[in-house]
Amino acid sequence: MDNNLVGSLKKLHRPAKNIKKLAWLKFPNDRFSNIYFKAKRISNNIPTIPKLARLPAISICTACFLLSFALTFKPAFNITVNGKHIGFADSMSSINLAKNLIQSSIEKSGQADFSLSDDIEITPSISLKDSIKTTDELVYSIANSSENICMASVITVNGEIAGACSSADDANFVLNSLLGQYKSNSSDNASFVQDVKVITIPVSSDLVSSSSMLLQHLKNEKSIDVQVISSAQHTESIPYQTQKIESDQIEQNIVKIMQFGKNGIASVSEQIVTLNGQETQRTVLHRSVITPATDCIVAVGTKSNGIGSGQFITPISGYRFSSAFKIRDGRWHKGVDLAAPVGTPIYAADSGVVTISKLSDSYGYYVVIDHQNGLKTLYAHNSSLLVKEGDIISKGQQIALSGNTGNSTGPHLHFEIHSNDVAVNPEIFLNFGTEVS
Questions:
Q1: Which of 42, 71, 239, 308 gives 20 to 30 Å between its CA and that of 1?
Q2: pLDDT (mean) for 376-394
Q3: Who's near 264: CB < 8 A, 6+ residues apart?
Q4: How does DSSP assign 35-66, residue by residue?
Q5: Could you tell me the pLDDT band of residue 417, with boundaries at 50, 70 and 90?
Q6: How confident is the model at residue 2 (pLDDT cuts 50, 70, 90)?
Q7: Any idea what the Cα angle at residue 141 is, between residues 139 and 144, rounded to 5°?
Q8: Cα distance between residue 204 and residue 110, in whole Å
Q9: Could you report the per-residue pLDDT of 28-46, keeping only the tens digit for each?
């Protein structure tokens, strides 16, 4: 036998640190060298236990594997509904809470006697942590796997369920349609008076309807009120005003239009509030004048034509009502006495023509005015007269000064009114206040 080969085989009984040296045996290639080395290790019963220096590395690898496993997996409960796996839960309390939430939601929708009758199986298991479902996810999965309930988009009005659709898009379509039916244009601001919301909850499958059916149902029920705030702009007429002026160039009771009136035009911006299509409020936001109005000017004649109006004014001011129309000193006192200092102005009670202006023993200086309408007035005991017979007098024109002439016991105006030449009580036409003796 080749001496080199014998020497190499003897070295196999040396310590294990020489084992690697066998790899340097010169065989035709490395693969045959490795096979030869393994064969000699087995035939000579060479130990295969790893060196102590390798144990820490193995321990670290094992620990890393266990830690990775603990971070990725956890104990869980496998849930099946009607034989269909729906997911994993981390605890029974989470599962029970999901079931209670489903039960409560169904009862709020009007089915107080509802009971979750589906076949729900729960078995202990192990799951990836990322696969554990939250309570909300469990509610969704259980509902969508049930035979008589489902997750739906529910419309609530002040917290009460008004209806449900299969999707949020359908529910929002219903609400937008309710708002849009009262809008005139896209700029209108429509809103619900009640607190209207869309929420996704489990409900009985019987409660879910199409968007068109639910829309018609809510319109018929009229349980949702819609308020719309809109703006509008229009033109409106500005009414003209009528001004009256007096003219002594025009005879009394004659009215002459000096300038015709004309309405103006204004631009008006308004805010309009409607409730279910009925207007409840209208507010003017801005008004601007496009064309101003032209006032009508009317001249009223004050130039007396000697014809009275039949409406009298008190012929003196600052007086004391000292005697009324009555029997006095055994005979009829045909007028009223209005006491006033000598020289107080006396005015015509109405327009007319002076028929008497003279001095007499009983009346002193007195004036009689014929109002040419069946009425006459008499003014007596004056200190002086300012008009003459035939003068045409205007209402309110000064005709005399009060005095104490004639049969008089003190300075005063004796005032009479005659209707068709018969003396009548002046208090029928004028209020002189309270008689003071």
A1: 42
A2: 96
A3: 237, 238, 240, 289, 290, 291, 292, 293, 294
A4: HHHHHHHHHTT---PPPGGGHHHHHHHHHHHH
A5: very high
A6: very low
A7: 105
A8: 9
A9: 455 555 666 566 666 666 6
